[in-house]
Amino acid sequence: MATQHSTAEGAAPRVPLLYDPRVRGIAYQVLVFVGLFALVYWIVGNTTANLQRANIASGFDFLKGRAGFDIGDSLIEYSSDSTYGRALFVGFLNTLRVAIVGIITATVIGFIIGIGRLSKNWLINRICLVYVEVFRNIPPLLVIFFWYFGVLSVLPLPRESIDLPLGSYINARGLFVPAFQWGPGAWLVLVAFAVALVFVFFVRRWAHKKQMATGEQFPVFWTSVGLIIGLPALAFIVTGFPLSFEFPQLSTFNLRGGMQIRPEFLSLYLALSFYTAAFIAEIVRAGVVGVNRGQSEASHALGLRSGQTMRLVIIPQALRIIIPPLTSQYLNLTKNSSLAVAIGYPDLVATGGTTLNQTGQAIEVVAIWLIVYLGLSLGTAGLMNWYNARMALVER
Amino acid sequence: MQEHDLSFVRAEMVANQPPPASNQGVGSWLRKNLFANPVDTIFTLIGIILVLLIVPPIIQWAFINAQWTGSDRSVCATVAQGGVQPDGWKGACWAFVDAKFKQFMFGRYPVDERWRVYLTGAIFISLLTPLLLPSVPRKGLNALLLFVAFPIVGFFLLSGGIFGLTPVPTPLWGGLLVTLVLAYVGIAVSFPLGILLALGRRSKMPVVKLVCVVFIETIRGVPLITILFMASVMLPLFLPPGTSFDKLLRALVGVALFASAYMAEVIRGGLQAIPKGQYEGADALGLSFWKKMNLVVLPQAIKLVIPGIVNTFIGLFKDTSLVYIIGMFDLLGAVRQNFSDANWASPQTPITGLVFAGFVFWLFCFGMSRYSIFMERRLDTGHKR
């Protein structure tokens, strides 16, 4: 093989250097590299000159400086005396909060609408179609504005709060719901929940092994449900019901107590969930439609009931189609949460923007944004790729 | 073969009989599509309740209670809010949209010069329509006019400064005009740039590939707002001191770069779907790289990913609304800006303005998606797997 190759090369007519693809390839790359290097050199030179002229310090020392601005919505202790670093961290936590809650809600709505789109029921089908076509074709920022300026801002003042079920109120300052107050020993409930999860994991493995060996089936689903609900409930009873609610109280001018969910968070959360759900619905529909019809026919022929067909044949295959685009929708939702800045929800971009305006350190702030969002993106993508690899079709 | 008396065999065909009565008419359709089984019936009832809960209030709000004419906020506010409507009134304030319509379309573009926007729009439509209609010939020339000649003409027509046209600086532009300018430039730049990036990412030259991968993944990994912030805050830092840079242009750079990264990934998907034999066949015919791409690979690849390309366009069109955050007034920004107009501020004004803006965005995006479905069907040669 090797000798053949060399003789062929030796016998070939000499190609002029100009037309040798290898030489050309190297030349192109050198050109690109030099061009890029020159561009970066030019940009760095300009930037240093500009920064010196504007008298802006560089480096990340500003993170230790006093922020001096207030943040309305914070998961951790924060005041205007805190540092810029802490402000950015508060923003990061807020981004995560709205993204996680939004992803869960969008997935639920999206799956419901997506399955509705597959329904043979004409009315349900049309309702879901209208939902998808409306929300897919308007900008998310407009949906956020719609909730914020159109719906939540025009709610009555706290004095005339609208009563909702379960002791909640809604008014122009947000949604007020009863706050959970965990008593002593409440951590045991969490521990019980974790223990239940571990149990379920082993029960499933054992049942699978047993079925493989003997063909006997074990009611895994009901056992799991029993464990997951039963163990925490038992712990709850044993520790003496360590949970009480603090209900919001209507006073003359405001509501006291309870938990306040601000309109900024609420509008961002609702808008992102509704908007992304439309895309998830289409993904779900495409996934289920994408499973070959023969698959369900074959499984019926094997004698599987329709529930089993769905659970064992259709869903595993549909998930394979659904997961990659679903991941990118989750990432889109996370990235779209940066629209928060338009209505003043203090997410990473909003707190970063304030920091940028106060310190003028644009490069550092933008670098922080890039690192955080890229980290989130690559992290989620990695996680989903790992899951996807497990679900992927093992081909011949 | 024996002769038989075949009198028991019919000599002519039996006439078609109508389907059973239970299989036709409204009743059958209802039974099949709405009340097939008990579960279906329950869902239908839930659906009817949903429709009854949602649709009548919307009609009530948008048409029956709506105010179509008026000169200030009083027609859209209740007595308690200082208007003329009875307490508890809720309706669309179309009068607000009517009064501000020109602003929503042009922003603060000088009234005397608006004929230039109309003219630009007319040229654009007269170039775009024949390009979109498959039966009109000379697509190449048409595309050349729309994507090379039109931007130059349009730029000078809109911004002025030559041939005695009054200069109109871009801060005065606004409304739908800015939205469309951003979307047009974004589409016109991101498509070729996306193709180049996609080809670069599939290149065998490591340096070129690395540059393209880093560019695409970085841009796709961050929100558009950070790109826009970068374009508006950092671009001036990158340029030699003293260079002033138009704000609209900065936004354009940001939007175009952002869209091209997404476009690149869509087109890469198409390139990957083309069988290797096509590349090898083109090589065997002795075509150069660019001829191979232009004549063999790209026409097939792009056809495959039309839905993805149009989705990127739609996404880009929706994303143009984000320039509001860096202080420009596109359609959504212009609407948002007018909420604070004291002459019109009422509880119903914001929602009416937003519904109007939403409808305009919806029309454009829905139109694009329908056109893509039409093109997809037309170009389908039946070779799809």
TrEMBL record, chain A:
Q: Which residues cross the membrane?
A: 26-44, 96-116, 128-149, 185-207, 219-245, 265-291, 366-387
Please indicate if the UniProt record lists Flavoprotein as a keyword: no
Q: Give the way it sits in the membrane.
A: Multi-pass membrane protein
Residues in ABC transmembrane type-1 domain copies: 92-380
Q: Where is the signal peptide?
A: none
Q: What is its main location?
A: membrane
Pfam families recorded for this chain?
Answer: BPD_transp_1 (PF00528)
Under InterPro entries, the record lists: AA_ABC_transptr_permease_3TM, ArtM/GltK/GlnP/TcyL/YhdX-like, MetI-like, MetI-like_sf
Q: Which domain of life is it from?
A: Bacteria
Where is this protein found?
Cell inner membrane; Cell membrane
User: Which SUPFAM superfamilies does this UniProt record tie to the protein?
Assistant: MetI-like (SSF161098)
Gene3D superfamilies with a match to the protein in the record: MetI-like
> Mind listing the UniProt keywords for this protein, alphabetically?
Amino-acid transport, Cell membrane, Membrane, Transmembrane, Transmembrane helix, Transport
> What is stated as this protein's family in its record?
Belongs to the binding-protein-dependent transport system permease family. HisMQ subfamily.
Protein name in the entry: Amino acid ABC transporter permease
